[in-house]
Amino acid sequence: MSQAVCILGATGSIGQSTLKILAQHPERYTVFAVTAQSRIVELAEICKQYHPKVAVVPAAKVDHLASLLLELGLADIEILSDQAGLMAVAEHSEVDVVMAAIVGAAGLLPTLAAVKAGKRVLLANKEALVMSGEIMMQAARDYSALLLPVDSEHNAIFQCLPQHYFDAERNGQPKLGVSQILLTASGGPFLNHSLEQLQNVTPAQACKHPNWSMGQKISVDSATLMNKGLELIEACHLFAVEEQFVTVVVHPESIIHSMVQYVDGSTLAQMGNPDMCTPIAHALAWPERIHTHVPALNLFATAQLNFQEPDTHRFPALKLARQAMKNGGVSPTIFNAANEISVAAFLQQRIGFTQIPQIVEQCLNVMQNQAAHDLDVIIATDQQARVLAQQYVMKLGS
Ligand code: NAD
Ligand code: MG
Q1: Domain ranges in the chain?
Q2: pTM across the whole model
Q3: How far is ligand 1, taken at its centre, from the CA of residue 15, in Å?
Q4: For 4-25, how does the pLDDT look when each residue is reduced to its tens digit (9 = 90+)?
Q5: CB within 6 Å of ligand 1 — which residues?
Q6: How far is residue 351's CA from residue 364's CA, in Å, rounded to a whole number?
C-alpha cells in the first residue's frame, strides 16, 4: 500500500529534496498535499509534476495559484489557505506522513496538528520543537505520533542510538549505556573569521555555506552557530537529555553527521556525503532503507576528517542556547523568536551580523521567564519576544 505524504513547505530546500525522493519511489509514496508561502509559479510546477489533491497558499495568493492550475488543466486540485489550510492538510485523515519543512515559528501549529493526528512526522522545522519543547514531545506520546528527526545531526544520532532507547526511556530505564551525544557542526562559512571580520560580513556571504545548500534563514543560523544552538535544544527534547549531555564538535568536512558515545568506550558515528536526501529518505522509510541518488561515501577521496572545539567568544550562540535550555520554561521560545527577528533584520541589512546574538542575549536577559504550561503561553511569549527584538533592531538600525 502506498503512503500519502503531505509536504509543508514544498517549495523550500527540504521540500524540494523530499519531492525528489518521492519521485524516485512512486510505488511507495503519493503526494497528497503541498504548501508554499511564496514562489507560487514553482508550486504550480510541483502540482503539475506530482498532482497532489490539495495545495495550500496564503489567502492573497489563492487566485494566482487557481489561474495557474486552470491553465495547466489541474482545476481539480483543491486550494486551501493560511494556517487553517495548513492544519487541515497536516491532520487530514488520508495523510500518513507529514514532512514538516516550513521555516520558523510559522510551522508550529501545522506540525503540532500533524503530531496530534498521530502521523509519521518528519521533523525538519526545528524551530517548532525548540519553541514548544515538552508540549510537542508530550503530544507525540499522547497521540502515538512517530516524530522522526530529519535534521541531519539528529537523524544521525537517532541512527546511532540503541534500538530500544525510546522504549527504555518510557519504561524508566533511561540511556541504555549512552554516555554522551556528540553534535557535529561544520562551523559555517566564517569558521576562521576574526571578531573584527565578522562585524562586516554581508548576507550574501553568510548565505554561502561551504557544504550545504539551504534556505536563507538556516544559512544565516549556520553562520552565527545559532543553528547549532537550536539543534542543541532540539537534541535535548528529542533524546530526553540535559544540555550537558550534548557536546558540540566542530567538524568542517560535514562527513560525520553526529555521534553517540557509550559507557564501554565505544563511539558510533553516522557518515555520508552532505546531502539532506539521506536523512529525509531514512525518516521516510524507517525502519526500512530506500535508495537515493546520493553516492556512497568515498573515504579515499575524503582523506581527512578534522575536529575542533567551538569558539563561544566569536560565536556566542551556543552559550546562549545552553543558557536558554538550562533556564527552561519559555526561555527557548524567547531565544528562537529573538533570533528569527534578528536574522530577518540582518538579511534586510538593518543590523550587523554580530548584533544577531546580542539581540538574542538582550531578549533572554530582559524578558521574564515562566513555566511553559501550554501553547497559549508559548505563543504569547513568542509574540512578546518578537516585539522586543524589533525594538532592539530599530535602536541598533537608527
Ligand atoms: P526554505 O526557506 O528553503 O523553505 C521554507 C519553506 O517554508 C518554503 O516552502 C516556504 O514557502 C515555506 N514558508 C516560509 N514561511 C512560511 C510561512 N510563514 N507560512 C507557511 N509557509 C512558509 O527553508 P529550508 O532550508 O527548506 O528549511 C526548512 C526547515 O528545515 C527549517 O526549519 C530549517 O531549519 C530546517 N532544516 C533545513 C535544512 C536544509 O538543508 N535546508 C537542514 C536541516 C533542517
Ligand atoms: Mg542540522
Answers
A1: 3-149, 152-313, 328-397
A2: 0.98
A3: 8
A4: 999 999 999 999 999 999 999 9
A5: 9-15, 36-38, 101-103, 106, 124-127, 151, 212, 214-215, 218, 276
A6: 18
